[in-house]
Design a protein that fits this description.
single chain, about 100 residues
């Protein structure tokens, strides 16, 4: 074994082989790509965006209607059960009296 030789493999990990300037350039280009992606998004006044927003609002309204209908159905079912129970109790009480 020779003393002073480098035992690391030359092809370990690529990012460790890059110099600082190369890594900084890659990070800067990634940041600029993300910024460009953000800039190319359609604005609030874009017809497609307005249509998507309207579609989402319609979906939300339909969801609210379904929720309200379920709530009303539960309330009606609870009222029906209470009425049945009170009628049943009244019938039992009338039967006990007789």
């Amino acid at each position: 074994m020779k003393i002073g030789t480098n035992s690391k493999k030359s092809g370990t990990r690529r990012y460790k082989d890059d110099e600082l300037a190369g890594r900084l350039n890659k990070a800067a280009s990634a940041r600029s790509a993300i910024l460009e992606k953000f800039r190319t998004r359609p604005g609030a006044d874009d017809p497609g965006e307005i249509q998507r927003r309207a579609a989402r609002q319609e979906i939300a309204n339909a969801r609210d209607l379904r929720t309200a209908a379920r709530s009303a159905s539960r309330s009606a079912e609870d009222a029906r059960k209470i009425t049945e129970r009170s009628a049943h109790e009244a019938a039992e009480q009338a039967q006990r009296i007789v």
